[in-house]
Design a protein that fits this description.
This protein is of the alpha/beta class and 458 residues long. The chain has 14 helices and 16 strands. The chain starts with a helix and ends with a helix.
Protein backbone atom coordinates (compact mmCIF):
# COMPACT_ATOMS: atom_id res chain seq x y z
CA UNK A 1 0.00 0.00 0.00
CA UNK A 2 2.70 2.47 1.02
CA UNK A 3 4.60 2.10 -2.29
CA UNK A 4 1.73 3.03 -4.64
CA UNK A 5 2.10 6.86 -4.47
CA UNK A 6 5.84 6.45 -5.06
CA UNK A 7 5.20 4.33 -8.18
CA UNK A 8 2.70 6.93 -9.44
CA UNK A 9 5.29 9.69 -8.98
CA UNK A 10 7.87 7.62 -10.90
CA UNK A 11 5.41 7.01 -13.76
CA UNK A 12 4.48 10.70 -13.93
CA UNK A 13 8.16 11.71 -13.96
CA UNK A 14 8.93 9.25 -16.77
CA UNK A 15 6.06 10.65 -18.84
CA UNK A 16 7.21 14.21 -18.27
CA UNK A 17 10.75 13.39 -19.31
CA UNK A 18 9.59 11.60 -22.48
CA UNK A 19 7.29 14.43 -23.51
CA UNK A 20 10.19 16.81 -22.98
CA UNK A 21 12.29 14.71 -25.33
CA UNK A 22 14.54 13.28 -22.60
CA UNK A 23 15.50 9.62 -22.88
CA UNK A 24 14.22 7.37 -20.09
CA UNK A 25 15.87 4.05 -19.19
CA UNK A 26 14.22 1.06 -20.83
CA UNK A 27 12.84 -0.13 -17.48
CA UNK A 28 10.75 3.05 -17.27
CA UNK A 29 9.39 2.94 -20.81
CA UNK A 30 5.98 1.29 -20.83
CA UNK A 31 4.57 -0.89 -23.58
CA UNK A 32 1.35 -0.16 -25.47
CA UNK A 33 -0.77 -2.38 -23.16
CA UNK A 34 0.72 -1.07 -19.90
CA UNK A 35 -1.81 0.47 -17.55
CA UNK A 36 0.57 2.84 -15.74
CA UNK A 37 0.21 6.60 -16.02
CA UNK A 38 3.22 7.13 -18.33
CA UNK A 39 1.83 5.99 -21.72
CA UNK A 40 -1.54 7.70 -21.23
CA UNK A 41 0.07 11.01 -20.31
CA UNK A 42 2.47 10.79 -23.25
CA UNK A 43 -0.44 10.04 -25.59
CA UNK A 44 -2.49 12.87 -24.14
CA UNK A 45 0.22 15.40 -24.88
CA UNK A 46 1.56 14.09 -28.18
CA UNK A 47 -1.52 12.36 -29.60
CA UNK A 48 -2.81 15.67 -30.95
CA UNK A 49 0.39 16.33 -32.85
CA UNK A 50 0.28 16.02 -36.61
CA UNK A 51 3.27 15.72 -38.87
CA UNK A 52 3.75 17.67 -42.06
CA UNK A 53 6.53 15.33 -43.20
CA UNK A 54 7.79 11.82 -42.44
CA UNK A 55 11.34 10.55 -43.02
CA UNK A 56 11.67 6.78 -42.58
CA UNK A 57 15.22 5.39 -42.54
CA UNK A 58 15.65 1.62 -42.92
CA UNK A 59 18.84 -0.27 -42.15
CA UNK A 60 18.36 -3.53 -44.04
CA UNK A 61 19.47 -6.34 -41.72
CA UNK A 62 20.50 -3.79 -39.10
CA UNK A 63 19.87 -5.65 -35.87
CA UNK A 64 21.23 -4.56 -32.50
CA UNK A 65 24.42 -6.53 -33.10
CA UNK A 66 25.07 -4.73 -36.39
CA UNK A 67 24.51 -1.36 -34.70
CA UNK A 68 26.81 -2.29 -31.81
CA UNK A 69 29.54 -3.46 -34.20
CA UNK A 70 29.44 -0.16 -36.12
CA UNK A 71 29.42 1.83 -32.89
CA UNK A 72 32.35 -0.06 -31.39
CA UNK A 73 34.44 0.26 -34.53
CA UNK A 74 33.71 3.88 -35.47
CA UNK A 75 32.94 5.91 -32.35
CA UNK A 76 33.98 3.55 -29.56
CA UNK A 77 32.16 1.41 -27.04
CA UNK A 78 31.22 4.46 -24.95
CA UNK A 79 30.41 6.60 -27.99
CA UNK A 80 27.03 7.13 -29.60
CA UNK A 81 25.96 7.02 -33.23
CA UNK A 82 23.44 9.50 -34.60
CA UNK A 83 20.84 6.74 -34.58
CA UNK A 84 21.48 6.27 -30.84
CA UNK A 85 20.35 9.82 -30.06
CA UNK A 86 16.60 9.60 -30.69
CA UNK A 87 14.45 10.49 -27.65
CA UNK A 88 12.02 7.59 -28.20
CA UNK A 89 13.32 4.04 -28.63
CA UNK A 90 11.49 0.72 -28.64
CA UNK A 91 11.60 -2.61 -30.44
CA UNK A 92 9.33 -4.37 -32.89
CA UNK A 93 8.72 -7.92 -34.02
CA UNK A 94 9.34 -8.80 -37.66
CA UNK A 95 7.89 -12.25 -38.41
CA UNK A 96 6.15 -12.93 -41.71
CA UNK A 97 3.31 -15.44 -42.34
CA UNK A 98 2.57 -18.43 -44.53
CA UNK A 99 -0.30 -18.51 -47.03
CA UNK A 100 -2.69 -19.47 -44.21
CA UNK A 101 -1.62 -16.56 -42.03
CA UNK A 102 0.39 -18.68 -39.58
CA UNK A 103 3.70 -17.22 -38.32
CA UNK A 104 6.89 -17.69 -40.32
CA UNK A 105 9.40 -16.68 -37.67
CA UNK A 106 12.20 -15.47 -39.97
CA UNK A 107 11.16 -12.87 -42.52
CA UNK A 108 12.79 -11.73 -45.74
CA UNK A 109 12.96 -8.09 -46.83
CA UNK A 110 9.91 -8.32 -49.11
CA UNK A 111 7.52 -9.56 -46.45
CA UNK A 112 9.00 -7.31 -43.77
CA UNK A 113 8.78 -4.22 -45.98
CA UNK A 114 5.22 -5.10 -46.90
CA UNK A 115 4.47 -5.07 -43.16
CA UNK A 116 5.26 -1.39 -42.61
CA UNK A 117 4.26 -0.36 -46.14
CA UNK A 118 0.71 -1.77 -45.89
CA UNK A 119 0.08 -2.57 -42.24
CA UNK A 120 -0.47 -6.24 -43.16
CA UNK A 121 1.79 -9.28 -43.08
CA UNK A 122 2.48 -11.46 -46.10
CA UNK A 123 4.55 -14.42 -47.24
CA UNK A 124 8.28 -14.19 -47.82
CA UNK A 125 9.13 -13.02 -51.30
CA UNK A 126 5.90 -11.12 -51.95
CA UNK A 127 5.70 -7.38 -52.60
CA UNK A 128 2.69 -5.59 -51.04
CA UNK A 129 0.20 -8.33 -51.93
CA UNK A 130 -1.88 -10.55 -49.68
CA UNK A 131 -0.44 -13.86 -48.45
CA UNK A 132 -3.23 -16.18 -49.57
CA UNK A 133 -5.14 -14.49 -52.40
CA UNK A 134 -2.24 -12.54 -53.94
CA UNK A 135 -4.22 -9.29 -54.12
CA UNK A 136 -2.61 -5.82 -54.07
CA UNK A 137 -2.65 -3.96 -50.74
CA UNK A 138 -2.56 -0.16 -50.60
CA UNK A 139 0.82 1.17 -49.47
CA UNK A 140 1.71 4.14 -47.30
CA UNK A 141 3.31 5.85 -50.31
CA UNK A 142 0.14 5.40 -52.34
CA UNK A 143 -1.91 6.88 -49.50
CA UNK A 144 0.49 9.81 -49.26
CA UNK A 145 0.11 10.46 -53.00
CA UNK A 146 -3.69 10.26 -52.80
CA UNK A 147 -3.59 12.86 -50.06
CA UNK A 148 -1.50 15.21 -52.17
CA UNK A 149 1.88 14.74 -50.50
CA UNK A 150 5.19 14.60 -52.33
CA UNK A 151 6.94 11.22 -52.14
CA UNK A 152 10.47 9.85 -52.40
CA UNK A 153 12.49 6.66 -52.12
CA UNK A 154 16.27 6.47 -51.77
CA UNK A 155 18.32 3.26 -51.53
CA UNK A 156 21.81 1.88 -51.94
CA UNK A 157 20.32 -1.25 -53.54
CA UNK A 158 18.67 -1.54 -56.93
CA UNK A 159 15.52 0.58 -56.94
CA UNK A 160 13.68 -2.63 -57.79
CA UNK A 161 14.98 -4.43 -54.69
CA UNK A 162 12.49 -5.52 -52.05
CA UNK A 163 12.58 -2.57 -49.63
CA UNK A 164 12.03 0.23 -52.16
CA UNK A 165 9.71 -2.03 -54.19
CA UNK A 166 7.14 -2.43 -51.40
CA UNK A 167 6.26 1.27 -51.56
CA UNK A 168 5.46 1.71 -55.26
CA UNK A 169 4.70 -1.73 -56.66
CA UNK A 170 2.72 -4.93 -56.14
CA UNK A 171 4.29 -8.21 -57.24
CA UNK A 172 3.73 -11.88 -56.57
CA UNK A 173 7.47 -12.33 -56.27
CA UNK A 174 10.30 -9.91 -55.53
CA UNK A 175 12.35 -11.30 -58.45
CA UNK A 176 10.05 -9.63 -61.01
CA UNK A 177 12.27 -6.55 -61.16
CA UNK A 178 12.31 -5.63 -64.87
CA UNK A 179 10.33 -6.51 -68.00
CA UNK A 180 12.67 -9.45 -68.70
CA UNK A 181 12.28 -10.81 -65.15
CA UNK A 182 8.59 -11.72 -65.04
CA UNK A 183 8.77 -15.53 -64.98
CA UNK A 184 7.61 -15.80 -61.35
CA UNK A 185 4.77 -13.27 -61.82
CA UNK A 186 2.65 -14.43 -64.80
CA UNK A 187 -0.49 -12.70 -63.50
CA UNK A 188 1.34 -9.40 -63.01
CA UNK A 189 2.29 -9.09 -66.68
CA UNK A 190 0.69 -6.32 -68.71
CA UNK A 191 -0.56 -8.96 -71.19
CA UNK A 192 -2.61 -10.51 -68.36
CA UNK A 193 -3.95 -7.14 -67.27
CA UNK A 194 -1.37 -6.74 -64.51
CA UNK A 195 0.76 -3.71 -63.64
CA UNK A 196 4.03 -5.01 -65.12
CA UNK A 197 7.44 -5.29 -63.53
CA UNK A 198 8.58 -3.50 -60.38
CA UNK A 199 10.65 -1.04 -62.45
CA UNK A 200 7.68 -0.18 -64.69
CA UNK A 201 5.34 0.24 -61.73
CA UNK A 202 7.81 2.45 -59.86
CA UNK A 203 7.96 5.05 -62.63
CA UNK A 204 4.26 4.67 -63.48
CA UNK A 205 3.52 5.64 -59.88
CA UNK A 206 5.28 8.94 -60.60
CA UNK A 207 7.14 8.95 -57.30
CA UNK A 208 8.71 12.42 -57.14
CA UNK A 209 12.22 11.25 -56.21
CA UNK A 210 13.65 7.78 -56.97
CA UNK A 211 17.38 7.42 -56.21
CA UNK A 212 19.49 4.26 -56.11
CA UNK A 213 21.03 1.53 -58.25
CA UNK A 214 19.53 -0.88 -60.75
CA UNK A 215 20.21 0.91 -64.03
CA UNK A 216 20.39 -2.45 -65.85
CA UNK A 217 16.78 -3.21 -64.86
CA UNK A 218 15.57 0.14 -66.13
CA UNK A 219 17.49 -0.35 -69.38
CA UNK A 220 15.47 -3.49 -70.17
CA UNK A 221 13.00 -3.16 -73.03
CA UNK A 222 9.28 -3.22 -72.33
CA UNK A 223 7.61 -6.01 -74.30
CA UNK A 224 3.91 -5.31 -73.66
CA UNK A 225 1.49 -2.42 -73.36
CA UNK A 226 1.54 1.18 -74.52
CA UNK A 227 5.26 1.60 -73.83
CA UNK A 228 6.23 -1.52 -75.79
CA UNK A 229 9.63 -1.15 -77.46
CA UNK A 230 10.88 1.49 -75.04
CA UNK A 231 13.25 0.81 -72.18
CA UNK A 232 11.90 1.58 -68.71
CA UNK A 233 14.32 4.52 -68.59
CA UNK A 234 12.81 5.85 -71.83
CA UNK A 235 9.36 5.29 -70.37
CA UNK A 236 10.40 7.36 -67.34
CA UNK A 237 11.61 10.21 -69.57
CA UNK A 238 8.31 10.09 -71.48
CA UNK A 239 6.52 10.43 -68.14
CA UNK A 240 8.54 13.57 -67.39
CA UNK A 241 11.37 12.21 -65.27
CA UNK A 242 14.79 13.82 -65.17
CA UNK A 243 17.19 10.86 -65.36
CA UNK A 244 20.58 11.33 -63.66
CA UNK A 245 23.48 8.90 -63.28
CA UNK A 246 26.11 10.64 -61.10
CA UNK A 247 26.57 13.24 -58.38
CA UNK A 248 26.89 16.10 -60.88
CA UNK A 249 23.59 15.19 -62.51
CA UNK A 250 21.94 14.88 -59.10
CA UNK A 251 23.19 18.31 -58.01
CA UNK A 252 21.79 19.82 -61.21
CA UNK A 253 18.38 18.15 -60.90
CA UNK A 254 15.73 20.80 -60.48
CA UNK A 255 12.43 20.88 -58.66
CA UNK A 256 9.20 20.76 -60.63
CA UNK A 257 9.83 17.48 -62.47
CA UNK A 258 10.29 14.01 -60.94
CA UNK A 259 13.85 12.69 -60.66
CA UNK A 260 15.11 9.17 -61.37
CA UNK A 261 18.68 8.61 -60.22
CA UNK A 262 20.41 5.42 -61.38
CA UNK A 263 23.92 5.35 -59.95
CA UNK A 264 25.03 1.78 -60.70
CA UNK A 265 24.04 -1.09 -63.01
CA UNK A 266 23.10 -3.18 -59.96
CA UNK A 267 23.47 -2.42 -56.27
CA UNK A 268 25.53 0.68 -55.50
CA UNK A 269 29.04 -0.50 -54.52
CA UNK A 270 29.71 -0.26 -50.80
CA UNK A 271 31.91 2.46 -49.29
CA UNK A 272 34.23 0.24 -47.22
CA UNK A 273 35.97 -3.02 -47.94
CA UNK A 274 38.26 -5.52 -46.23
CA UNK A 275 38.88 -9.23 -45.78
CA UNK A 276 35.77 -11.35 -45.37
CA UNK A 277 35.43 -13.57 -42.32
CA UNK A 278 36.99 -17.01 -42.68
CA UNK A 279 37.04 -20.36 -40.96
CA UNK A 280 39.59 -20.15 -38.17
CA UNK A 281 39.42 -16.34 -38.28
CA UNK A 282 41.51 -13.63 -39.96
CA UNK A 283 44.57 -11.69 -38.90
CA UNK A 284 43.61 -8.44 -37.13
CA UNK A 285 42.67 -5.90 -39.80
CA UNK A 286 41.70 -2.29 -40.32
CA UNK A 287 38.93 -1.61 -42.83
CA UNK A 288 39.68 0.15 -46.12
CA UNK A 289 37.37 3.17 -46.18
CA UNK A 290 37.65 3.99 -49.90
CA UNK A 291 36.47 0.93 -51.81
CA UNK A 292 38.23 1.04 -55.23
CA UNK A 293 35.19 -0.61 -56.82
CA UNK A 294 33.06 2.41 -55.99
CA UNK A 295 33.00 4.58 -59.11
CA UNK A 296 34.00 8.23 -58.83
CA UNK A 297 30.96 10.45 -59.02
CA UNK A 298 28.74 8.06 -57.05
CA UNK A 299 26.76 10.18 -54.57
CA UNK A 300 26.82 9.01 -50.96
CA UNK A 301 23.62 8.07 -49.17
CA UNK A 302 23.65 11.23 -47.07
CA UNK A 303 24.13 13.36 -50.21
CA UNK A 304 21.18 11.62 -51.86
CA UNK A 305 19.08 12.13 -48.74
CA UNK A 306 19.93 15.82 -48.57
CA UNK A 307 19.04 16.34 -52.24
CA UNK A 308 15.82 14.32 -51.91
CA UNK A 309 14.73 16.53 -49.01
CA UNK A 310 15.52 19.64 -51.03
CA UNK A 311 13.48 18.42 -54.02
CA UNK A 312 10.53 17.26 -51.93
CA UNK A 313 10.42 20.48 -49.94
CA UNK A 314 10.52 22.52 -53.15
CA UNK A 315 7.61 20.55 -54.59
CA UNK A 316 5.41 20.98 -51.53
CA UNK A 317 5.85 24.75 -51.65
CA UNK A 318 4.60 24.96 -55.24
CA UNK A 319 1.41 26.81 -56.12
CA UNK A 320 -1.68 24.81 -55.27
CA UNK A 321 0.33 22.00 -53.66
CA UNK A 322 -0.60 20.55 -50.30
CA UNK A 323 2.42 20.83 -48.00
CA UNK A 324 4.11 17.70 -46.80
CA UNK A 325 6.07 14.69 -47.97
CA UNK A 326 6.89 11.07 -47.23
CA UNK A 327 10.48 9.91 -47.81
CA UNK A 328 11.99 6.47 -47.27
CA UNK A 329 15.78 6.05 -47.15
CA UNK A 330 17.39 2.59 -47.13
CA UNK A 331 20.89 1.51 -46.22
CA UNK A 332 20.57 -1.76 -48.14
CA UNK A 333 23.97 -3.38 -48.09
CA UNK A 334 24.28 -3.77 -44.35
CA UNK A 335 22.24 -6.87 -45.11
CA UNK A 336 24.09 -7.79 -48.29
CA UNK A 337 27.52 -7.67 -46.67
CA UNK A 338 26.20 -9.53 -43.62
CA UNK A 339 25.09 -12.31 -46.01
CA UNK A 340 28.67 -12.33 -47.36
CA UNK A 341 30.24 -12.35 -43.85
CA UNK A 342 32.03 -9.11 -44.73
CA UNK A 343 32.35 -7.06 -41.53
CA UNK A 344 34.08 -4.06 -43.10
CA UNK A 345 31.52 -3.68 -45.87
CA UNK A 346 28.75 -4.06 -43.33
CA UNK A 347 30.19 -1.49 -40.88
CA UNK A 348 30.82 1.03 -43.65
CA UNK A 349 27.22 0.81 -44.85
CA UNK A 350 25.89 1.21 -41.30
CA UNK A 351 28.10 4.30 -40.93
CA UNK A 352 26.75 5.61 -44.26
CA UNK A 353 23.15 5.19 -43.07
CA UNK A 354 24.08 6.90 -39.81
CA UNK A 355 25.22 9.96 -41.75
CA UNK A 356 21.85 9.97 -43.52
CA UNK A 357 20.20 9.82 -40.09
CA UNK A 358 22.20 12.92 -39.15
CA UNK A 359 20.88 14.71 -42.27
CA UNK A 360 17.30 13.71 -41.43
CA UNK A 361 17.58 14.83 -37.81
CA UNK A 362 19.16 18.14 -38.86
CA UNK A 363 16.22 18.72 -41.20
CA UNK A 364 13.77 17.90 -38.41
CA UNK A 365 15.54 20.32 -36.06
CA UNK A 366 14.59 23.11 -38.48
CA UNK A 367 11.19 21.57 -39.25
CA UNK A 368 9.85 20.19 -35.95
CA UNK A 369 6.63 19.09 -37.66
CA UNK A 370 8.69 16.25 -39.20
CA UNK A 371 8.48 12.71 -37.84
CA UNK A 372 11.80 10.86 -38.23
CA UNK A 373 11.89 7.09 -37.69
CA UNK A 374 14.92 4.80 -37.90
CA UNK A 375 14.56 1.04 -37.82
CA UNK A 376 15.45 -2.22 -39.57
CA UNK A 377 13.51 -4.81 -41.51
CA UNK A 378 14.99 -7.84 -39.73
CA UNK A 379 17.94 -9.04 -37.70
CA UNK A 380 21.04 -10.66 -39.18
CA UNK A 381 23.94 -12.92 -38.39
CA UNK A 382 26.97 -10.98 -37.11
CA UNK A 383 27.84 -11.43 -33.44
CA UNK A 384 30.61 -9.87 -31.35
CA UNK A 385 32.35 -12.67 -29.46
CA UNK A 386 35.34 -12.91 -27.08
CA UNK A 387 38.76 -12.83 -28.71
CA UNK A 388 39.53 -16.25 -27.28
CA UNK A 389 36.39 -17.82 -28.80
CA UNK A 390 36.85 -20.41 -31.58
CA UNK A 391 33.56 -20.28 -33.50
CA UNK A 392 32.69 -23.22 -35.76
CA UNK A 393 31.70 -20.88 -38.58
CA UNK A 394 33.39 -17.80 -40.04
CA UNK A 395 35.07 -15.10 -37.99
CA UNK A 396 37.17 -11.98 -38.40
CA UNK A 397 39.21 -9.86 -36.00
CA UNK A 398 39.12 -6.09 -36.48
CA UNK A 399 41.23 -3.31 -34.97
CA UNK A 400 38.82 -0.56 -34.00
CA UNK A 401 39.36 3.20 -34.04
CA UNK A 402 40.07 2.88 -30.31
CA UNK A 403 43.02 0.62 -31.13
CA UNK A 404 41.36 -2.41 -29.60
CA UNK A 405 40.75 -5.81 -31.17
CA UNK A 406 37.18 -6.95 -31.77
CA UNK A 407 36.12 -10.39 -33.01
CA UNK A 408 33.05 -10.91 -35.22
CA UNK A 409 31.42 -14.29 -35.77
CA UNK A 410 29.13 -15.44 -38.61
CA UNK A 411 27.56 -18.84 -37.94
CA UNK A 412 23.95 -18.88 -39.21
CA UNK A 413 24.83 -21.17 -42.10
CA UNK A 414 27.43 -23.70 -43.23
CA UNK A 415 30.72 -22.05 -44.29
CA UNK A 416 30.58 -21.51 -48.04
CA UNK A 417 26.86 -20.70 -47.96
CA UNK A 418 25.34 -17.24 -47.59
CA UNK A 419 24.67 -16.23 -44.01
CA UNK A 420 21.02 -15.98 -42.95
CA UNK A 421 18.57 -13.52 -41.44
CA UNK A 422 17.50 -14.05 -37.85
CA UNK A 423 14.02 -13.83 -36.33
CA UNK A 424 14.90 -11.48 -33.48
CA UNK A 425 13.04 -8.28 -32.68
CA UNK A 426 14.83 -5.12 -33.86
CA UNK A 427 15.20 -1.53 -32.74
CA UNK A 428 12.84 1.26 -33.77
CA UNK A 429 13.58 4.85 -32.71
CA UNK A 430 11.84 8.12 -33.47
CA UNK A 431 11.47 11.83 -32.86
CA UNK A 432 8.72 14.28 -33.72
CA UNK A 433 4.92 14.04 -33.90
CA UNK A 434 3.58 10.62 -32.82
CA UNK A 435 7.08 9.38 -31.94
CA UNK A 436 5.75 7.98 -28.66
CA UNK A 437 4.02 5.23 -30.65
CA UNK A 438 7.33 3.37 -31.10
CA UNK A 439 7.80 2.84 -27.35
CA UNK A 440 7.63 -0.62 -25.83
CA UNK A 441 7.41 -3.77 -27.96
CA UNK A 442 5.28 -3.30 -31.08
CA UNK A 443 5.02 -5.10 -34.39
CA UNK A 444 6.37 -4.00 -37.74
CA UNK A 445 2.84 -3.58 -39.11
CA UNK A 446 2.12 -0.91 -36.49
CA UNK A 447 4.65 1.42 -38.12
CA UNK A 448 2.15 1.82 -40.97
CA UNK A 449 -0.41 3.12 -38.47
CA UNK A 450 2.11 5.44 -36.86
CA UNK A 451 2.96 7.09 -40.18
CA UNK A 452 -0.65 7.20 -41.33
CA UNK A 453 -1.78 8.79 -38.07
CA UNK A 454 1.07 11.29 -38.02
CA UNK A 455 0.30 12.46 -41.57
CA UNK A 456 -3.52 12.25 -41.10
CA UNK A 457 -3.80 10.17 -44.27
CA UNK A 458 -7.28 9.21 -45.40
Amino acid sequence: MGSRPYRRRLAWSAAALLVAGVAVPATAAAGPDDTSDAPSQIAAQSGKQKAKNVILLIGDGMGDSEITLARDYTVGAAGRLNMDKFPMTGTYTTYSVDKNGKPDYVTDSAASGTGWATGQKTVNGRISKTPGTDKPMTTILELAQRNGLATGSVTTAELTDATPAVLASHATDRSCAGPADMKACPNDTIAKGGPGSIAEQSVNHKVDVLLGGGKARFDQKITEGRHKGLTVTEQAKKLGYQVVTDDKGLKNARAGKPVLGLFAPGNVPVEWTGKAAAQGGTEPQRCVTNNPERKAGTPSLDEQTRKALQLLEAKQSGKGKKPGFFLQVEGASIDKRDHAADPCGQIGETAALDRAVKVARAYAAKHPDTLVVTTADHGHTSQIVPLEATPPGLSSTLVTNEGQQLKVNYSTNTPGEAQEHTGTQVRIAAQGPQAHRVLGVTDQTQLFGTIRTALSLR
